[in-house]
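Escalated from tier 1: protoporphyrin IX containing FE holo job.
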Amino acid sequence: MADNSTKGVSSMLANAAGQAADSVRGALGHIGQTEKIKQLAHSAHIDNTAAVLTTSFGTQLSTTDDSLKAGPRGPSLIEDFAFRDQMAHFDRERIPERVVHARGSAAHGYFEAYEDLSSLTRAAPFAHKGKQTPLFTRFSTVAGFKGSADTVRDVRGFSVKMYTEEGNWDMVGNNIPVFFIQDSILFPQVIHAVKPEPENEIPQAQSAHPSFWDFVSNTPESTHMLMWIMSDRTLPRSLRMMNGFGVHTFRLINAEGVSKLVKFHWRPKQGTHSLIWDEALKTNGRDPDAHRRDLYVNIANGNYPEWELGLQVFTEEEAAKWPFDVLDSTKLIPEELCPVRYVGKMVLNRNPDEFFAETEQSAFHPGVVIPGIGFTNDPLLQGRLFSYSDTQFYRLGTNYQQLPINQPVCPVRHHQRGGAMQTRIVKGPNYVHNTTNKGCPFLSGKGYVHHPEIVEGAKTATRSASFGDHYSQAKLFYDSMTETEKLHIQAAFVFELSKVADPVIQQRVVDQLNNVDQPLASAIAARLGTNPPAAPTFKPVFQGVATSANLSIINSQAYDSIAGRDVAILLMPGYDSSVHELRGALKAAGATVSIVSATPAPVPDAAGASTLKPDYTFFASSSTQFDAFFIPGGRKNVDALLSDATALVQIAEGFKHLKAICAVNEGIEIITRIGLQVPIAQAAGAGAAATSAVEAFGVVTAVGVGAGGSVVGTAVGMAAGATTSLKAATEGKAGWVAKFLTAIAKHKAWDREPMAMKVVC
Ligand code: HEM
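Tier 2 regenerated the structure:
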C-alpha cells in the first residue's frame, strides 16, 4: 500500500498543484499568452530564423538539390544519408485521418468564468469569478475525408480541450443537441451508412446517397436528428456562428460529493447564422476552405470569436417527471422546462502555428474529465468513453497524450512506461507500493472520485422502454420552426431523397415523417412522386411545451451585431463620397470592409481627391465570400460597373442569397438594370423632395447622399468600439447607413426568398 500519510511528499504535491494553479490563473497577461501557449513555446517551438540546415541527426548540409551520384549522369548512391533521411521521413508523413470528423480547424483561446460555481461543481474552471483557463477548440465536419469541402450539409463537431490545473477536461460535442442513435453499438453502422457508398466511394462528405437513407429509414430513433440535419443548422455561415452542445447528460459534482445533472451549451456571441442551400453548394466549389479560412482570417485580424457556456442544471427527481429520458441522446430538454444558465465565455484568440502538430494531432475524448465532472449511464456516452482513446492509440500512437498539444499544463506523474515514441525519461521505480521512492508519486487525497451511483439490474442487451418515443421531439422541433425554416427542411428532404433511386427507401422516409407532420410528409411525397402518406398512426406525447423558441435559428437571434461580417464595396474609378461615409460606420461596428474592383490598381474617387486599394478583383473573388454589398454612386463608376458582368453577377447572386444590398445615388441604376424587383428611393422631381432612404426586402436605396448632395440619409455615427449594441445605435434612425447596418445584422432578408428563388444565376 502506498503510504498516503507520508508528510513532506503530500505537501510537496500540494505545493506543485498550487503553483500550477497560480500559473494557470495568472497566465493571461497579454493576448494569446495562456499557460498552454507558454508551455508549447517552451517545449515544442522551433524557430528556423537564421538557422543552418541539417539532417534529422544534426549534420549540417552542403547541398539540397542534387543527390549523391556516381558521376553527374550516373546512378544515385544509397550511401547518400541526407537523401535517405529526407525521403524516408517524407514517405511516412501522413498518419491515419480520424475515422470520423476528419476535416477540422482549430484555435487556441481561454475560458473565463462569470461566477463562482463551487457550490455546484469542484471543476477547476469554475472556481471563482473571472478565472481564466487556457483551451484549444477544434471544429469539424463528420462524414467527409480530411480534404473535403467545408460547407457541406453535415453535423459539425465542437470539441473544447480545457487545460486546467487539475488536468485536461475535454468537452466533445456537436452543433446539434441530439444524435442519430441511442446506443453506441450502432455507431459504426450509422457511420458506414453516411460515408460514401462502399463500391465506388461516392459521394464525398454528404448524406445525399442511398446507403444513408436506407439505414436511417430502417432506424426510427434517427428521426429527431434527421429533422435537425435537414434544417439550416447543418449549413453554418461560419464556424464562428454556430452553437455547440455536449449532447449527453453529464454530472456536476461539488466538493461535498453532491451531484446534479447537466447539459452543456455553447452560444456564439456572433449570433447563429446559416447559409442557404444554393450558396452552400456554390461556396463548396469556389472556396472549399471557406470555414477554415474564415476562422483563421478573423483570428489573425484580431476579430476574436466568443461563445458563452450555458448549463441546464437539474436533479434526478426533476428528470423523472419529464416525458422523455435524459439518458437518451435523441432527446433534448426544452429550455422552457429547464432554462440555460450562462456561466462563462470562451474566447478564441490565437491560431495554431502548425496545422499538423496542433490541429491534426489533437486528441479529444469525452472521457477525459477532471474532478467535479462525471458521467451518466447514457448508452451512447458509455460507448464513446471506450472508443475515443482506442482510436487515438491507433491514429496517434501509444503515447499520444505526450504530444505537445495534448499535454496537460499540470504535473503528470504515473507508472506508465515504454510504448512507441516514449519521450519521457523517468527516474526511479515504475510501480506503486514502492519503498525506494517513499511511495511516490502517490495519492493526493484530492483526486478524482466517481459519483457513487447505485446501480442494479439484470445483464441484458435490450433498450429501455423509456427510449421508445422517436417522434414527439421531432415534431416539437418541426413545430418550433418558422415557415421559412419549414420550407428549407422540406426542400432538403426532397433534394437528398432525389439522390436515392430506390422508391422503397423514399417511401419509408415519407412514412417515417408522417409521424412527425403529415403536411410535410405529403409535400415531400408529392415532390418525389411517391405514394401520399396514410393517416398518421402515432400519437405525439406532449413534451411539456408545444413549441420552443430557441430551436429556431430565426426566432432566437438578437440581430444586434455586424461584427465580423464581410461587406463588399464594389467600385470603379469615379465613385462618390458615400463610400467614405459608409466605411467609417462599418468599421466602427466591427465589420470587415472589402474593396472590390476590376483590377488591383488603386481606384480614384470622382473628385480625384483620394484612392482606395482593392482587396479583391471581381474576377478573383466571389459573391459567396461576402455578407453584404454596397454600390456607391458616381456617373463614371456606375457606367463602368454596368459594363462589367463579373460585378453584376456578384450583386445578382448576393440578391439571390438574401444578403443585404445597398445602392445610393446613380448606383441605384444597377439594381433596376439587373431586374431586382424591389421598391427603391426616388430622386427629387419637379417640386417633389427626394424620398428618404428606402429599405425593402433587405435592399436599401437612397438618393442625394454623400458630401455635396442634399443629405437625405444620415450616418449612424457609431463611435469606434460601439459594437455591443447595434440596435441602440441604429434604432429609429431614418438614414441609409443605419438602415443598411440593420439589414446586415439580420443576416438574411427572409421575406425576399420567394422572389430570390426566381433569379437565374
Ligand atoms: C453525441 C454523440 C457524439 C458526438 C457529439 C461526437 C462528437 C465527436 C467530435 C466532435 C469528434 C471530433 C473530435 C476532434 O475534434 O478531434 C469526434 C470524433 C470521433 N468520434 Fe464522436 N461523437 C459522438 C458519438 C460518437 C460515438 C457513439 C462514437 C463511438 C462509439 C464516436 C466515435 C468517435 C471517434 C472514433 C472519433 C475520432 C476521434 C479521433 O480520431 O481523434 N463518436 N466525435
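The CA atoms of residues 506 and 733 lie 51 Å apart.
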